[in-house]
Amino acid sequence: MAHSLLLLPGDGIGPEVMAEARRLVEWCTEATNLHFTIEEDLVGGAAYDAHGVSISDQAMAKAQAADAVLLGAVGGPKWDGVEYDVRPEAGLLRLRKELGLFANLRPAICYPALADASSLKKDLIDGLDILIVRELTGGVYFGEPKEITDIGNGQKRAVDTQVYDTYEIERISRVAFELARARAGRVCSSEKRNVMKTGVLWHEVVSRVHAEHYADVALDHVLADNCAMQLVRNPKQFDVIVTDNLFGDVLSDIAAMLTGSLGMLPSASLGETDEKTGRRRALYEPVHGSAPDIAGRGLANPIAMVASFAMALRYSFDAGDIAGRIETAISRVLDDGLRTADIMEQGARQVSTADMGTAILDAL
Ligand code: NAD
To answer: Which residue out of 288, 299, 308, 338 has the highest number of ligand 1 atoms within 8 Å of its CB and is therefore the one to mutate?
Structure first.
């Protein structure tokens, strides 16, 4: 049976890095027992230019129907002036919202060949492999009220509301425990229960879900500020970190920088599993943006996009073996000294976006 993929290359370097991921998708269909049908559509500024919206209803329908969506990146200075609700990022937010993507997975893996590029000492990050599971659709970014009011005397008051319901914490902790089972079997839950009621509930619900269903997984709790410190002090102590939307935003960026360039970092966003079909809505995208400063010049690093497809293989298509082969191929190419401009170092050989894609295919 063929699996369906929707490719949304987007703007800037999005189409360049997606072209390399597409070659990998086609390689899978030719060289493995996994077969993909590919559709492609517009998102972000590209969709705005064509349709006046950041994602068309037709593209949304394709995303709803696909087994997984691969997205490049959206945005750029060209669209800085467009109305707020059709700005490029709105397309991404619509996808996340309408696909119900509540779990954001951000792995931080250190490829041995790049261990020297980290701002931390090599022995602290050599062999690093952690996964941050961030709640993506709740918390303070969405809670109401969210407003700035005039309170007189030249003063204003700004309010954001951090709010979580039990079900939101239950479902994100289930994702973290399930993932940990397939990894080193350790989850660290991070909140601030010492000063926040949402932290108290978070701690309570994660602990209960653990006791009831996942006692085989080791669970620790760490306050979010301490978690930030521990991530730079001794990141290898962690396996899976589960946390809310706000802390996850910050902690995942810290974890990202442990391993060097933005051009290396993949991500996945997952929704609920449909009980009838067993299918889970999912969108895979690099962490980086559209990098308008280097777009169209063959300078973009395609590894984050290619590794995002590897995540799709692992989490949407139960093909961890093929994902592992792709990750090993990336590692091999880096060991051979090939580098795109963003990760270039002395003694290495600088290659273009397409050459990096070719080298990964050759290594496969
Ligand atoms: P960016 O991630 O696009 O770029 C930051 C820096 O990293 C730039 O110097 C860029 O050249 C470099 N870089 C990023 N990806 C790279 C890659 N694959 N290979 C080599 N170098 C890479 O962030 P920005 O400059 O703050 O934002 C540019 C645009 O992207 C903005 O319009 C922003 O809104 C948008 N953006 C989109 C997403 C997304 O689509 N998910 C995420 C972040 C930013």
So the answer is: 288
